[in-house]
Write a structure and sequence with these properties.
10 strands; repeat; aminotransferase; 368 residues; 5-stranded parallel beta sheet; single chain; alpha/beta; binds fructose -6-phosphate
């Protein structure tokens, strides 16, 4: 049942190329247009939307943070991302022109369910991104994009997260198509890049042993920091959450630019810092990330850098280098999170923890 793996989680990490491919299947029609079968909102309703609020918890919330970068960039519609547990207690400003997007792997998370009920009472349209057919959240939503990860049994979300990212990209591109903010050729080009991601994830997985060795070298570690920028920032948060959940060690993710505003005080000799390095591009993200890495290194941190193939400029600053396939910055989370999942899974295994059933956690959280 675990396909020869020791844990469901590890099996599910290795299923990710297929889960991503399945979640893309049938969405890109031959005429180049995107189609989302369960998108029960009309083009006119979508054109009327002038604000999006994404609500979710935990790992699904981090998928929402990535979605914000993609949706705003491709559609120019402002996006807020909010923890479902906070949403209805702050009297959020909602009306019929606000689209609320609820992201939930299980479709049963109580905080998220209560949040969408609140949104619908305020006459907002609700779209669910969900992995569980017929669960409560999609049943109570106006529209749904189902992810096709297959059942996720490990308590820590892995393939659920990757397929949520895919659904968020599809939603962003679909909105761009309907609103006319991006044209067919460009959308098709991004779809082709997405369709190449399963092979690129497989390439990352083929080098799992390198990550495992690195993880096992950290069994005595009590604290790990994760740094990222742009779409790599939520990846840093997710990498830290995986480590907390599975290895029970203190782990925190930061936006690299925020370091000097406080967190750099945490850095001391030998502290492992995992850095998600953005691809080299015309923006200054890459250079800015390198200067953040230099800052922590100058204070004694040991840097583990995830950087794209061919990026030699990172070499002087990396105590350890994990190579990522070359993909555009907005899509990089799909490949960058995989080594972080492997790292947490292997480190927790080496520490003797139950990876599939971490202490104090449940697979779906049906109480608020
Ligand atoms: C982390 C994890 C949790 C869930 C969160 C939301 O590995 O699994 O943080 O992501 O409880 O669950 P869903 O997506 O089912 O609403």
């Amino acid at each position: 049942e675990k396909d020869g793996h020791d844990w469901f989680m590890r099996k599910e990490i290795f299923e990710q190329p297929r889960a991503v491919a399945d979640s893309l299947l049938g969405r890109h029609a031959r005429n180049g247009l995107l189609q989302l079968d369960e998108m029960r909102l009309s083009d006119q309703e979508l054109r009327d939307i002038d604000k999006i609020i994404i609500i979710a918890c935990g790992t699904s919330f981090y998928a929402g943070l990535v979605a914000k970068y993609a949706i705003e960039h491709w559609t120019r519609v402002p996006v807020e991302v909010e923890l479902a547990s906070e949403f209805r207690y702050r009297d959020p400003i909602l009306d019929y022109s606000t689209l609320v997007v609820a992201i939930s792997q299980s479709g049963e998370t109580a905080d998220t369910l209560q949040a969408i009920r609140h949104a619908r009472l305020q006459r907002s349209k609700v779209l669910a991104i969900c992995n569980t057919n017929g669960s409560t959240i999609p049943r109570e939503s106006d529209a749904v994009i189902y992810t096709h990860a297959g059942p996720e049994i490990g308590v820590a979300s892995t393939k659920g997260f990757l397929t949520q990212l895919v659904a968020c990209y599809l939603l962003a591109l679909y909105l761009a198509q309907v609103k006319g903010t991006r044209y067919g050729d460009e959308i098709s080009e991004i779809m082709r890049q997405l369709e190449s991601i399963p092979d690129q994830i497989a390439a990352v997985l083929s080098r799992a042993d390198e990550v495992y060795e690195l993880a096992r070298a950290h069994v005595d570690t009590r604290s790990v920091l994760f740094l990222g920028r742009h779409a790599g920032y939520p990846v840093a948060l997710e990498g830290a959450l995986k480590l907390k959940e599975l290895a029970y060690i203190h782990a925190e993710g930061f936006a690299a630019g925020e370091l000097k505003h406080g967190p750099i005080a945490l850095v001391e000799e030998g502290l492992p810092v995992l850095c998600v390095v953005p691809p080299r591009g015309r923006d200054q993200l890459h250079e800015k990330m390198i200067s953040g890495i230099q800052e922590v290194r100058a204070r004694g941190a040991r840097t583990i850098c995830l950087a794209e193939e061919g990026d030699t400029s990172i070499e002087p600053y990396a105590d350890h280098l994990i190579r990522l396939p070359r993909v555009p910055v907005l899509l990089q989370p799909l490949v960058a999170v995989v080594p972080l999942q492997l790292f947490a899974c292997e480190l927790a295994t080496a520490m003797g923890h139950d990876v599939d059933q971490p202490r104090n956690l449940a697979k779906s959280v049906t109480v608020e």
